[in-house]
Amino acid sequence: MRGTFQSSGQNCIGIERVIAEPRSYAKLVDILEDRVKALRLGSGIDQLEEIDVGALISAGPKFDYLEETIAQAVKEGARLLVGGKRYAHPNYPQGHYFSPTLLVDVTPEMTIAKEEVFGPVLTLMKAENTDDAIAIANSTDYGLGASVFTGSFAAGNRITNQLKAGNVAINDFATFYVCQLPFGGVKSSGYGKFGGEEGLQGLCVAKSVCYDKLSFIQTRIPAPLDYPIKNGKKAWKFVSSLNRSGYDNSLWQRVKSILTLAKNAA
């Protein structure tokens, strides 16, 4: 609820699509319908009333887009349970209010499932199983923020590793932002990161510097090498030993490779 309706849905990492497995879907429909209906619209500046959702930053074409997109979803087979239209607030007639909206039975093929709504609209989608839920989550062109809710951390971690998103919170919403971890998206949600040490690296120009750490070992200009190589067998042994000495998991194999390397260096 917070992920969808805070800032009236005008949140770059807001939750727009809730994807549930069959065992949870019907229960979620009932819970969300009651809670979205109970949301109170109003001004956060006014201390005389309790509110849950404020106004949008602007109306005009934005309201037209929201109403048309919701109507299109219903035409395509979704069920509109709550909201779906602009709201004329009796106390704030100049406010840009849109009714908190709940759409259920939304499918990946629908327009509303493919586009970024950026408003107080929650769409509920049913997945056949966990793998199908992952496929639905990855089916859009966007990939900024995601959340995984599960009773098993191992399952949550497995799902997270398969999600094509720049940021994922397990059993929470947007905690990666609060923790100041590197923040950024994938696909059409942009590129690059900010936040954290890794994010700062994106603002830097890297410079590679190489030097001899040991004074008694110096880099020398190699002897001239004529092509084609006169001894291809020795050349292959040299190259393969060089790679093995640096990357083999076995310490013994790395030591052997260094000896082979020395034999075939000349």
Automatic annotation (TrEMBL):
Keywords of the record: Oxidoreductase
Database matches in Gene3D superfamilies: Aldehyde Dehydrogenase, Chain A, domain 1 (3.40.605.10), Aldehyde Dehydrogenase, Chain A, domain 2 (3.40.309.10)
Keyword Oxidoreductase: yes
Pfam families: Aldedh (PF00171)
Gene Ontology MF: a single term: oxidoreductase activity, acting on the aldehyde or oxo group of donors, NAD or NADP as acceptor
The keyword Oxidoreductase belongs to this UniProt entry's keyword annotation: yes
InterPro entries assigned: Ald_DH/histidinol_DH, Ald_DH_C, Ald_DH_CS_CYS, Ald_DH_N, Aldehyde_DH_dom
Domain (Aldehyde dehydrogenase): residue spans on this chain: 2-209
Family statement: Belongs to the aldehyde dehydrogenase family.
PANTHER family: ALDEHYDE DEHYDROGENASE-RELATED
Name of protein: Aldehyde dehydrogenase domain-containing protein
Organism per entry: Kuraishia capsulata CBS 1993
